[in-house]
Amino acid sequence: MVEYNILDFGAVAEEENDNSLAFQAAINRCAENGGGYVIVPSNMKFMTGPFSLKSNVTLYVETNAVILANPDETVYTKSAFRENLGEGTIWIGGENETNICIEGNGTIDGNGIAFMGPEEKAAYILKEFNVIDPRPHLLTLVNIENLLIRDVTFKNSAYWCLHIVGCDNVKIESVTILNNLKIRNGDGIDLDHSRNVRISNCYIESADDCICFKTRREYDELGPTENVVVSNCIMTSTSCSIKLGSENMDAIRNVIVSNCIIKNSNRGIGIQNRDEGIVENIIFDNIIVEGRLFDDVWWGKAEPIYITAYKRKSENNKDSNWRFAKGQTEGKVGEVRNIKFSNIFCKSENGVFIGGEENKISGISLYNVSLEIEKSTKYKGNVYDLRPSDTIGLMETNISGFHIDSADDILLSNCRLVWGKNSEPYFSHALAFNNASNINIVNFNGESAQDQFEPHKFNNCGEINIK
After folding, report:
1. Distance between CA atoms of residues 36 and 31, nearest Å
2. Is there a smaller number of Cβ atoms within 10 Å at the N or the C end of the chain?
3. pLDDT tens-digit readout, 108-146
4. Distance between CA atoms of 401 and 406, rounded to whole angstroms?
């Protein structure tokens, strides 16, 4: 394949020089000539504003090469989204292309702190803006067929890091993502209306979610997010390491997540359905979850496994009206069904939480789920987090090992609960079921945290089988 070195197109490795024209010229020439490699040479740092990738082009970032986002907010003028202009801009983009590749052992640095306000203890303050939030998403690719991202380190994104929208046949392999754990909305990988995706052997640290599955309303013509495999990844998140939702206007289905380690995370595995789309046919297998509490600014309350289905708030704010279906002033929530967890080892400050509106959650199976609950931080712990929803946001209550509310067809098989040495007065039942039906519990091993709480609590439940 033909190589096009950005130095030959005028790129200069100086901190004050914006190289976006040189990058774009090299990419355009490469695409015009049928494709090849655009080389970012080793041991050099290139600052650049926005540029776009083209069909049949490989952006090759050589060892110790760095692409750094221009800290000047005024160069970012294109919104990352079609309809809501208040959620960032595009730095590296591409739309309606084929055969795009980003690889190499270099680094792509979003320069995130340059776009932040003052630093506080839990998170950076976000700067005010008029219409367009200038914080750049690091990579936004829309409607790409055949996408490969391999070996590169991505770091310091000011907003979502890798936003993969409506893409087909995607491979993300051996990628490292190191986002600042105090930058809000700093997702690692967002799969949005994409299909036939393989994510493997990645290491991800992110404020907000590490890997997030979604279907945003403004891309509804691009179909569901489906047929996704995630394997052999290690993740840390101040929100949720693996999340399905909350934006889901179409469907998220046929997903397998296996052989992963989640550490030091605010929430481990989360299904957070808040819109009318369905979530179905999901498998989580061979996963270790280590959870802990963080400040309230981050969604999550150390739930190692979390499944919820509640509609959004109806107030006119960032998380409500503009996300509703056209002509609607109130949202609704779709079903979550056919979800399987197996061989999951959890240690956290909270228990498993499953809850939703009536007739929205069904077919949940937990096999060989081992859970240890122990207080390990100073943060308030007697809370489940239902944000963003039309019900209560932060629900203060006693904490059970497995809390299941308004769900049907639930199986717990060979599950185990241990309460750790650092106990709290609000640690309570081993199992707490409310408004649930068709409950099957097989070979459960676990007691209440304290004598005043019964081990198994069933309130207004249908058929219950315990073996």
Report:
1. 8
2. C
3. 999 999 999 999 999 999 999 988 899 999 999 999 999
4. 17
